[in-house]
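Dear Dr. V.,

Thank you for agreeing to look over these. As mentioned in my earlier message, I'm a first-year student in the group and I'm still getting used to reading structure tokens, so any feedback on how I've presented them would be very welcome. I ran two proteins. I've put each sequence directly above its structure. The first is here:
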Amino acid sequence: MKKLYFILALTVASFSVKAQDFDIFLEAGAEDANTLLENYFTPVFQGFGYGLNGGWLNTAKPHKSLGFDLTITANLARVPDDDLFFTFNNADYSAVQLRNGTSVELPTFFGPTTDPDLLPELVVNQGTEDEFRFTPPQGLDIEEQFRLNAVPVPMAQLGIGLFKNTELKIRWTPEVDLDGDGTFKLLGFGVLHDVKQWIPGLKLTPIDISAFVGYTSMTSEFIIDDSDPSNIQQGVFDVNGLVIQGMVSKQFSILTLYGGVGFNSANTNFKLEGDYDREGLDLPTDPIDFEFSTSSPRLTAGLRLKLAIFTLHADYTLQEYNLITAGFGISIR
């Protein structure tokens, strides 16, 4: 099987990197491959989920009726040092074990590139006629290449003022063909509502206070091997993100300071579809299929400049994977 070019953050990111051949994971057998692959790609899944929930807001003030903005943001979900490695424990696997020892730290996708000779050997069906050995995947040392361990998630969205100081946010990307290597699509909705108007005594205060809820769904498919039309081998990646947040902002002429506190979560489903023949292994059709969930409280602080109808903004969000966001847009009314 050809080497897979795993497009970090599923091709919506601004760069692509060469990832490990999925053969490495499948050597462990279907059940253990699911566990091994989930551990290895945890920073990608978590970072993308948190990044997908970013970039919704840069003010707590909803647009007036029929006012609108078009905003483009870049979100960088920083991978903590603790997720550069994962612990391989023999007890977590049924057929694959360490050749020597019972536990070891192995690099994740964002971990360092390691000399293969220094990586421990893993053994499948140890002590049987079907025993064979393989080396676990290396990290890609993203920080060495791009100076920052982060998952990039760019986003474009439209905000439209409705009624009663309520604004609708829309994120939408039609299904895009990725040069024959797969497809990508995204859909999201959010609602920002001014709550100050309903609280006696706050109506005349010179700040804006709003509540927000937003949901984003993304699906990407990437081709691994399509040389056999009757057996298309592909990966399918689905992510759903939800954020609930209270926002406050204060405008000083062209400068707006804003902040928010809330909670966000993301659910990921990853599948490897098709039939995969491996000597000595009886792999089922679609051998990889697992779900991954993550959640965290969030605390955001940022600033926005508005020059005529043009806006520039930047903010930082404290959460499990801290988020750096910067963007620009056009805002009217």
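The second protein is here, in the same arrangement:
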Amino acid sequence: AVLLNTVHDAVLHPGEQGGLKSWFYQPFRPAHAYIALSNYVAQQLCDVYAIAPDRVSVIPLGPLSDPVTRVPDGPSRTGPLRLLFFGRILRYKGLERLIEAYGMLRAEGQQISLQITGSGDLGDVIAAVTALADITVDNKWVPEDEMEGVFSQADVIILPYLESSQSGVIASAFATGVPAIGTPIGGLPEQITHGVNGLLTADTSPAALACEIRKLAGDGALLAKLREGALRTAQQQFSWDKISDEILILSRNCLNRVGR
């Protein structure tokens, strides 16, 4: 038999230490090959666990639903740019920096709104959230079959992360024609191509986040371009047909190596 080990995170994210997850993140069981979901994680596997590079293949994570057939209509130019923060709320996700950036932009008079959807502790940010207009919060875990509906209400998803291996949220957002603004951290630059399917910030500061959001809020043509690029990326780079083919090729190569 051949064992392929698919690795989402090579090391724990900040704030995930302790309990069952810490036990799980022991040195990985020896496998014939490892599938990393980004080059960033592949390098961590080699560096942290001394796995030979030729045993690690990079195959990206696909979306949770099939890509839509066309890009949905964008926002009215008279309406706000709808920002979405989606996913688990943990320290490394940088939500407090997004809220600070949002406050800066609202003070400028930018026409934007923010939806925060995900499970986690909002204690550190709830005061800032309630002090700002047009922020809505849905503090719960969202089932997979409801995610597309959440994304469909957004114009751009924001990933203000301070650390990241890669993001399954990006792949699923792209499949609905929603581009991303993310920080240049970990594997995010492998998924977000600046000016093609989203925008990458200069750094992780609130000012850098505000800069890229400001660009999109004031440029409807750019938003339309990024929406097209996001869907195209989902249909091509994150296609499950392509991913399946790559896994089959890797599996056959492993079988050949062990003489099956």
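From my reading of the second output: The radius of gyration is 19 Å. The chain is about 40% helix and 15% strand. Does that match how you would interpret it?

Kind regards,
E.
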